[in-house]
Specification:
CATH architecture of the largest domain: 3-Layer(aba) Sandwich
Shape: elongated
Order of helices and strands: EHEHEEEHEHEHEEEEEHEEEEEH
CATH superfamily of the largest domain: Response regulator
Structural class: alpha/beta
Strand content: 25-35%
Number of helices: 7
Largest sheet: 5 strands, parallel
Radius of gyration: 20 Å
Number of domains: 2
CATH topology of the largest domain: Rossmann fold
Length: about 240
């Protein structure tokens, strides 16, 4: 099931866009689209606080007293990579919107053909994001994690301690090799010594003795491994990271 969060403070727009999504689902013979309407930025944030997940976001640029761009930035700060489509009556915020990785910026009144094209692109991107999710067995059960949220993991005894962007730490019962094999299905990870696996998406720079991650984290580089780690970092950067 593809979960679509639709946020607009105008009931008429919520109904109109929901209708377009239903028509799109019928046209594409895709019954696996489910719309979740929100009439305020706060209500959508509350759903995210309750760990509700969405595969696509369709947001108005003006949601009551809040600018939708701020909502999009809040979504991205949570480590959510799901595609965002903006709906608006003005192009004033278009440049700023693309700083959040906005997929499409559609001007109201909505033209169905353009909306359907945006949905095509959003579903394609959502599929790519989904492919970067990994299932990790932790003490509290199986966690379905977006790989981009992982900063690094460190081995202790028979466990891997996986640190996420929000400072949450998961204790995973796997060997370093098992975890590395799982993460490399998503690409963008490198082993550093015998204990660490680092997400190259979150590397700020590489010095001669340490890998410096965002969030003020540094990982020591074993002797003789600097060139190898530096090459992995630059190769990842030069390849454009991800589509």
């Amino acid at each position: 099931m593809i979960r679509i969060a639709l946020c607009d403070d105008e009931p008429r727009t919520l109904e109109e866009v929901s209708r377009y999504i239903r028509k799109y689902a019928e046209k594409e013979n895709n019954p696996n689209l489910e719309v979740f309407p929100f009439d305020s930025a706060r209500s959508l944030k509350n759903a995210l606080d309750e760990e509700k997940s969405f595969d696509i976001f369709v947001l108005d640029v003006y949601i009551g007293d809040e600018i939708g761009i701020a909502l999009a930035k809040s979504i991205r700060k949570r480590g959510i990579e799901s595609p965002i489509v903006f709906l608006t009556t003005s192009i004033d915020h278009a440049p700023e919107s693309f700083e959040t990785g906005t997929l499409r910026y559609l001007i109201k009144p909505i033209i169905p053909a353009k909306f359907y094209e945006a949905m095509d692109a959003a579903l394609t991107q959502a599929e790519r994001v989904g492919e970067r999710r990994v299932k990790l067995k932790t003490e509290s059960g199986v966690e379905n994690i977006n790989a981009s949220r992982i900063l690094f993991s460190e081995a202790h005894a028979h466990y891997q301690y996986v640190t996420l962007e929000n400072s949450q730490q998961l204790r995973v019962r796997m060997t370093v090799t098992e975890l590395y094999t799982t993460l490399m299905k998503c690409g963008g990870f490198v082993r550093v010594g015998s204990a660490y696996i680092i997400n190259l998406r979150n590397v700020k720079n590489v010095s001669t003795s340490e890998v410096h991650l965002y969030h003020n984290i540094s990982i020591p580089i074993p002797r003789g491994k600097h060139t190898e780690i530096k090459k992995a970092f630059w190769d990842f950067q030069s390849e454009g990271q991800e589509d």
